[in-house]
Specification:
251 residues; single chain; Ribonuclease iii, N-terminal Endonuclease Domain, Chain A; 3 strands; 55% helix; mainly alpha
Amino acid sequence: MYDRWNYPIPNIRISAQRKAQLRTLAADIDYDFMHWSLLDVAMTHSSYANENKGYDSKDNERLEFLGDTVLNLVASDVLFKKYPDVPEGELTKRRSVIVSEPTFAYAARLMRLGDYMRLGRGEELSGGAERDSLLADAFEALWGAVYIDTGYEKTYRLLVERFESIAVEATSAGNLFRDYKTQLQEHFQRTGKDKVCYTMIMESGPDHDKIFTMAAHVGPLQLGVGSGKSKKEAEQMAAREALVRAGLLHP
């Protein structure tokens, strides 16, 4: 089945109980889906699809891919209109704060997306519904689903109405949303030194609960080490440690 833009629509039977859950979620963004299967898939993690082959192995990864692009475009659109005199470099910095895993995870928690997600048993038992990377992915998939269902214009309006205030709240929530990597790179640019690079020094844990450890370094000099549930999070933590070591950030 395809919609009017030739996007494939998942052909999935949804129980009355599940549809009631999805309607509650949709009401939170003030949108009534034409194709509820899109929202159902958006809230389905790959661990659930892998454990439930009768579900036709549909998960939210493709919608996440699309939603990431949609969110980038909407954020760019809003920033471009709202700040006509701000240069490109500063617009890029502001967008990187909004379009980021911590901000999306924060927004997802406010919407309680974890309550609506289908997770595999192992993922659920390990607290996956509260993991930043999983929540951020679900947030992206949600808006990918909305975009397919209604197109850009309404998706833009819904995001601005529902997400602009969340983004402001998220970016004022403290150090969690600071871009330590950018701060560290700018410090070394001012001192005329080489670009900061990141390498993975360890990966541990089962597939559903990985922990990555990354090191920040300039040439052979190691600046800091950090760990996280994703490589991006670990890089941010490594950059944070480097800033603390350099006396540029309080512990």
